[in-house]
Amino acid sequence: MNDYQKAKKNSFDLIVKVGEEYPQVISLVPRFASTFATFKLVVNKIAELGIQQAVDITGIADDKDTLMDELIHQVVDISGAIHSYAIFKDDKTLAAKVNYKEWTVEKMSLTDLLNAAAIVLEEAQKIAPEELTNEGITVAEIAEFKSDYEQLNAGSANIRSAIINRASYTQQIADLFTEAADLKKNTLDRLSTQFQRKSPEFYQKYKAASNVIIKRSPKTAAETPTAAV
Questions:
Q1: Helix (H, G, I), strand (E, B) or coil at 212
Q2: pLDDT of residue 89
Q3: Which residues lie below 8 Å from residue 137, measured CB to CB, with a gap of 6+?
Q4: Which H/E stretch holds residue 226?
């Protein structure tokens, strides 16, 4: 949630809390009571989705960054070895296929790096182990390269899935905020004026809970917080 949504959520939570403290009072206006029950369900759903939206993908991203760094070095080293082998064998097609320069690989996106790694790995597995060893690349290094490539490829799918899920939660939460705001503005607020006579104490608490206090980000903390109804 963004800062404004968090501020709105705090206000909605307070409204729910006040309503729960005065069940007999709100029952005096049946439409208010039934709308309040719906409002409460929507607010609770916002809280549930907010938790799911906040699921941290930092760990996945950190693993990705570590594997990317390792794979960059592997692609550069192994493609260089295959290129040397191809030149020795006078195989210009193979040499051109694995002609990855270090500065180019380092600037590759995750997708491009995975594509390059797949090509290099495929060509490496076609060459006899003793031939690659002669170029300085051992069987163990190829096995590690293959493992890192497969892990990063799988991790990339997990990150994409997490991002898609987070985007879905973001839209669902936005829709729920719209629904809650509509219930409050068009029904609860319009009926709440009756409580000025029927229960002034509840009315004052309801009005106070309706204030939305937006906290500024740290870089603008010196500014006065904004309050809106």
A1: strand
A2: 94
A3: 77, 78, 81, 124
A4: strand 226-228
- Which two structure tokens, joined as six digits, stand for 45? 């759903």
**Are the CB atoms for 35 and 188 separated by under 8 Å?**
yes
- Please identify which residue in the block is written with the tokens 């082998």: 85
* 104 token code pair: 């180019």
Token pair for 213: 């206090």
pLDDT for residue 4: 85
How many Å separate Cα 140 from the centre of its chain? 36
Number of Cα atoms under 13 Å in the Cβ half of residue 201: 3
Quick check: 206 and 15 in contact, CB under 8 A?
Answer: yes
Q: Which residue has the tokens 């799911």?
A: 52
Beta bridge partners of 58: none
- What would the mean pLDDT of 13-36 be, rounded to a whole number? 95
Helix, strand, coil abundance in the chain, percent, nearest 5: 80, 5, 20
